[in-house]
Amino acid sequence: MERSLSDSLTQPTRGLLPSLVATLGMAATVGGALAFEHIGGYIPCALCLMQRTPYYWGIPIGVAAIATSVLKLPAWTTRTLLLVIGILMLVGAGLGVYHAGVEWHFWEGPATCATTASGVSGNVGDLLGDLDSKHGPSCTDAALRVLGLSFAGWNVIASLILAGIALRGATKA
């Protein structure tokens, strides 16, 4: 019996839920980081920007995993894509551990941690206001701590949760 596209959408495969959750989780995590940057005025340091890379790669891979599941492609395709997401999130967690260790002065950070000060006005009249509202990047000092964890620490937690979802999904899909 042939299945139509509407049947594929109403009867998803086992890999759909972990693909959706992981992809939405990655989008929410990196979206939160971008909100702190563009709304909160926290200019990310070089290590912060590096920690976003696994998300930027993982989101389109997650969309592909959703598509392979909805289109009922062979299960190994969804499993492979979820495995790649899991590995990317483990890399993201490792980058977060490294950055958090730099912030806690457990080890040396990079020799330079310079990024551009995007969003700072070129208008002299606005410059003093920008200096008060924009927080300069530093790899060694946490810009903000919530419940004792910096952005890097929260990234470790988010990355590990997302890696767990993706890797468990890869084994069950």
Write the SSE topology.
Blueprint: H1 5-10, H2 16-38, H3 46-70, H4 75-103, H5 124-133, H6 151-172
Helix pairs in contact: 2-3, 2-6, 3-4, 4-6
Labels describing this entry:
single chain, 173 residues, mainly alpha, 6 helices
Summarize model confidence as the mean pLDDT: 79
Helix content: 55-70%
What is the first-to-last residue Cα distance?
23 Å
- Count up the helices: 6
Poorly predicted tracts of residues? none
Compute the gyration radius: what is it?
A: 19 Å
Classify the beta-strand content into a percent band. under 5%
Report on the architecture of this protein:
The chain is mainly alpha-helical. It contains six helices and no strands. It has helices spanning 5-10, 16-38, 46-70, 75-103, 124-133, 151-172. The longest helix has 29 residues, at 75-103. The chain is elongated and about 55 Å long. It starts with a helix and ends with a helix.
What's the quick description here?
With 173 residues, this protein is mostly helical.
